[in-house]
Write a structure and sequence with these properties.
With about 280 residues, the chain is mostly helical. The protein contains nine helices and two strands; from the N terminus they run H-H-H-E-H-H-H-H-H-E-H.
Length: about 280
């Protein structure tokens, strides 16, 4: 069950960049959501611009593989947001839209999960952190179905899905890290009213919390799509570039051949035309 967890005896390396990404994103999430709770659409769009600037800046230090994962996460999550929020009304933002900061925000959230997953802290204490997360999220889910807190049957189901990602998935550290950043943003976002979850899930017709206790499972889906599709997409783009490059080389060579063949003839014809013009002018 823990075969994809890091080897506890492996050497641990701490990189300041990983902790900076995580700390910066946690801070930006709090500031953004607290600001949006009292902003208008123009200010919300301004937060979106800042989000893209921050995301691009953070990606400058990453390899192309991670960059592709982030791009896929942003694309998939944005489509999911419009479907789940705008269309299905599973959760609703203040203005009934998908705020401009949400797409880059998903990119930063995913990058944070990757950064924490590869950090020395998570590599060294993976089992302890996993135990803590399972206990906390488990108690949260039990509270939701026992009547202690708001009714949250959907949260309990999502918690079971999250456990599947954590103990059966090939990247458990990413899913484990995702729990922290996604729980952080969900608790802040719902507390200040930036968005709220529907009392009854529109698909399952079951009660759900605000937020659901196992909400991290939805973000794990985004992470799984990003990690599984990055290599195929990169391979496709590499092959497409090779085909386009070969086509351009052949096109340039063909142009060069026609140029070498017909340009002297054109020059000769132009010379004859000019010579005739000179003769005509002299006469």
């Amino acid at each position: 069950m823990l075969r994809y967890f890091p080897d506890p005896n492996a050497p641990i390396v701490h990189h300041k960049r990983d902790y900076f990404i995580a700390g910066f994103t946690f801070f930006c999430v709090a500031v953004c959501l607290l600001t949006d709770a009292h902003s208008d659409l123009a200010q919300q769009n301004g937060l979106g611009v800042c989000g893209w600037i921050f995301l691009i800046g953070l990606l400058l230090g990453e390899c192309r593989h991670v960059r592709m994962q982030v791009l896929i996460a942003v694309a998939f999550a944005t489509i999911g947001e419009h479907f789940a929020s705008v269309y299905m009304q599973g959760y609703i933002y203040r203005f009934g839209n998908v705020p401009a900061y949400v797409p880059p925000g998903h990119g930063m959230v995913y990058l944070t999960a990757v950064a924490l997953a590869r950090s020395g802290l998570f590599q060294a204490y993976s089992r302890i952190i996993a135990t803590l997360v399972v206990i906390v999220c488990g108690l949260w889910s039990i509270a939701g179905i026992s009547g202690i807190s708001q009714s949250d049957s959907v949260g309990a189901l999502l918690f079971c899905v999250f456990l599947g990602y954590l103990f059966k998935g090939r990247s458990p550290m990413v899913y484990l890290a995702a729990f922290f950043i996604t729980t952080w943003l969900e608790l802040i976002g719902t507390a200040v009213g930036t968005w709220h979850w529907a009392t009854i899930d529109p698909v399952l017709s079951l009660p759900q919390g605000n937020p659901p206790s196992g909400v991290a499972a939805w973000y794990c889906l985004v992470d799984a799509v990003a990690m599984n599709f990055a290599d195929p997409v990169l391979h496709f783009l590499t092959q497409l570039w090779k085909i386009c490059r070969q086509f351009l080389i052949q096109l340039i060579n063909s142009i060069q051949i026609y140029y070498d063949k017909f340009f002297p003839l054109i020059q000769r014809q132009m010379s004859l035309i000019l010579l005739r013009q000179d003769i005509s002018d002299e006469s």
